[in-house]
């Protein structure tokens, strides 16, 4: 069941949010964050939606929200600084609601700011990064904090990601401690769509790798 959340308050004001409710006895809750809001990213993004559906298939409650200044969320975009605090506000809300360990997943910009908020948070049991960016539209993303991220980690990217080449990403992910898994999807761009020589969408492959990793790492079973 999908619920509209009306009482998520971030540092810059109310944040628009949705909750896909799961089973009462689910061992985890999930938080999924969206890509860059200045380039059309919202909690309704296709990659975010498919990630949500993957978690929901395990009967896990899934929480999504719009960063400040996006959709109906109050405030204005803060170039990734205040958005880290938005993620922390969502973690606080989700933990207060369920009191369960949280599985975090973010796409693109959402993975970057989510990692910054979640790496040091003991409530977060896992980190999933979809299309983790290295550089985009003149912006560079740095991950000096990554060596301190000790939770189980899954990184899924396309081998034709314009914002994160396999070589650049490999250099960054080499600094991430175990346990970690790195998946590169052949013929996929940043949005897990196809390329001219391999045009079929790859969102189903992203879901497959995420689902398999969740089942293996956390002994989850789908419904």
Short description:
The chain is of the alpha/beta class and 223 residues long.
CATH-defined architecture? 3-Layer(aba) Sandwich
Element-by-element helix/strand order: EEEEEHEHEHEEEEHEH
Query: Largest beta sheet, briefly?
Result: 8 strands, mixed
SS-based class: alpha/beta
pLDDT below 50 for ≥5 consecutive residues: which ranges?
A: none
In CATH terms, the superfamily is Alpha/Beta hydrolase fold, catalytic domain
Main sheet strand line-up: 1-4-6-5-7-8-11-12
The strand count comes to 12
Using the alpha-carbon principal axes, give the shape: globular
Tally of individual helices: 5
Q: Please tell me how large the radius of gyration is.
A: 16 Å
Q: Tell me the CATH topology.
A: Rossmann fold
Taking the alpha carbons of the first and last residues, their distance comes to 14 Å
Secondary structure layout plus pairing:
Elements: E1 2-5, E2 9-10, E3 13-14, E4 17-20, E5 29-33, H1 46-56, E6 62-65, H2 81-98, E7 102-107, H3 109-118, E8 124-130, E9 135-136, E10 139-140, E11 153-158, H4 166-173, E12 180-185, H5 203-218
Parallel strand pairs: 5-6, 5-7, 7-8, 8-11, 11-12
Antiparallel strand pairs: 1-4, 2-3, 4-6, 9-10
Describe the structure.
With 223 residues, this protein is an alpha/beta fold. The chain has a single domain, classed as 3-Layer(aba) Sandwich (Rossmann fold), CATH 3.40.50.1820. It is 28% helix and 22% strand. The protein contains five helices and twelve strands. Strands 1-4-6-5-7-8-11-12 form an eight-stranded mixed β-sheet, with helices on both faces. It has a two-stranded antiparallel ribbon with strand order 2-3. Helix 1 (46-56) packs parallel to helix 5 (203-218). It starts with a strand and ends in a 5-residue tail after the last helix. The relative contact order is 0.15. The model has no long low-confidence stretch (mean pLDDT 97).
């Amino acid at each position: 069941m999908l619920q509209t959340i009306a009482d998520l308050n971030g540092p810059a004001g109310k944040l628009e949010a949705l909750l896909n409710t799961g089973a009462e006895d689910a061992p985890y809750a999930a938080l999924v964050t969206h890509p860059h809001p200045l380039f059309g990213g919202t909690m309704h993004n296709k990659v975010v939606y498919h990630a949500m559906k993957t978690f929901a298939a395990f009967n896990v409650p899934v929480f999504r929200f719009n960063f400040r200044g996006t959709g109906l969320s109050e405030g204005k975009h803060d170039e990734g600084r205040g958005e880290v605090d938005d993620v922390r506000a969502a973690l606080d809300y989700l933990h207060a609601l369920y009191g369960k360990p949280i599985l975090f997943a973010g796409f693109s910009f959402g993975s970057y700011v989510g990692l910054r908020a979640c790496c040091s948070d003991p409530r977060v049991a896992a980190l999933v990064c979809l299309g983790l960016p290295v550089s985009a539209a003149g912006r560079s993303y740095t991950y000096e904090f990554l060596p301190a991220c000790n939770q189980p980690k899954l990184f899924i990217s396309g081998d034709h990601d314009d914002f994160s080449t396999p070589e650049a990403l490999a250099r960054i992910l080499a600094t991430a401690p175990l346990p970690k898994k790195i998946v590169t999807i052949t013929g996929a761009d940043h949005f897990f769509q196809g390329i001219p020589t391999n045009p079929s969408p790859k969102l189903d492959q992203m879901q497959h790798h995420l689902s398999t990793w969740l089942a293996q790492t956390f002994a989850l079973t789908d419904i």
